[in-house]
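PROTEIN DESIGN WORKSHEET
SECTION A - STRUCTURE
LENGTH: 312
TOKENS:
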């Protein structure tokens, strides 16, 4: 008699006890996900069709007017452009720096543990604390300009936060300082999973250090880099706290650092138009979801397919 296919055998092997165990373990997570992700998104989409002040039952139905206003508002389009720039600059600036630091720290260097901690510390500092500190240091009479003047470079002193030509670059410097540690730790973890035998074999064959990194380390680090890039893209699209703390609700727009999230708060909650704010939240969610699905489909697909193939 021919044996049943493995998949059919596995399905027959799942009894009520295992099903109950799966339900018990996954049930709370599903309830939390539906209650704190799916339900709020649906409610935001519902309130987005109303002109609503945030209390009581919404009655002023405006159909798609909120969404039309969002897509036609130059302030929102400018904020969307800023988010796009932050996404690109985060990948271009933080990625190479983090890879370089990870390659350095992956070697036997004196004080390696201390350096790792110092690089990672900014990541665990609360955004409010980091934003407040940088806003004080980057003011026209702040510590940065004070240091420049004390060493004879006063001609380089600028209004780093209010100057539209410099504000976005100041934001990128802060974001790099804040989140570079996460990327470095992630890349270091990926490098630890690369077998040392490959580098040793390459050295025996006469490959230099940089040839080994370019031909072996970086290709094998590809899945980790792609995961980091995905997290960086989504984080840049949803950027809010640092911008709001440093530039506030009014200066961000004039300084050229507004984002979709700050636009949502300013035009929604602060303006008392919660229906419009919910509509902006839905637009932000849809944009992030589309980018995530496209990235998953065209970039992460081979990584996930490889994992599924190995699992079989």
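SECTION B - SEQUENCE
RESIDUE ASSIGNMENT:
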């Amino acid at each position: 008699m021919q044996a049943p296919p493995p998949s059919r055998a596995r399905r027959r092997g799942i009894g009520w006890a295992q099903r109950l165990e799966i339900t018990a373990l996954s049930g709370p997570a599903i309830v939390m996900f539906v209650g704190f992700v799916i339900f709020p998104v649906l409610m935001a989409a519902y309130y987005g069709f109303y002109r609503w002040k945030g209390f009581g039952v919404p009655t002023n139905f405006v159909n798609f007017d909120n969404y039309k206003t969002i897509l036609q508002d130059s302030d929102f389009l400018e904020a969307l452009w800023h988010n796009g720039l932050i996404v690109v600059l985060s990948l271009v600036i933080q990625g190479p720096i983090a890879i370089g630091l990870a390659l350095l720290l992956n070697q036997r260097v004196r004080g390696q543990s201390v350096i790792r901690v110092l690089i990672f510390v900014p990541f665990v500092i609360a955004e409010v604390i980091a934003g407040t500190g940088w806003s004080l240091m980057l003011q026209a009479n702040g510590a940065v300009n004070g240091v420049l003047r004390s060493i004879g470079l006063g001609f380089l002193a600028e209004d780093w936060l209010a100057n539209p030509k410099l504000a976005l670059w100041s934001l990128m410097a802060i974001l790099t300082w804040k989140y570079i540690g996460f990327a470095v730790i992630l890349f270091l973890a990926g490098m630890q999973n690369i077998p040392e035998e490959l580098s040793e074999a390459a050295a025996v064959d006469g490959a230099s250090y940089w040839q080994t990194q370019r031909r072996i380390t970086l290709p094998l680090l590809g899945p980790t880099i792609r995961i980091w890039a995905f997290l960086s893209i989504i984080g840049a699209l949803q950027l809010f706290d640092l911008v709001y703390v440093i530039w506030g609700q009014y200066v961000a727009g004039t300084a050229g650092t507004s984002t979709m999230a700050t636009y949502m708060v300013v035009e929604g909650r602060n303006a008392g138009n919660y229906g419009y704010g919910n509509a902006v939240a839905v637009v932000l969610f849809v944009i992030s979801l589309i980018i995530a699905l496209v990235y998953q489909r065209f970039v992460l697909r081979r990584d996930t397919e490889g994992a599924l193939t190995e699992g079989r």
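SECTION C - NOTES
The radius of gyration is 25 Å.
The first helix runs from residue 6 to 13.
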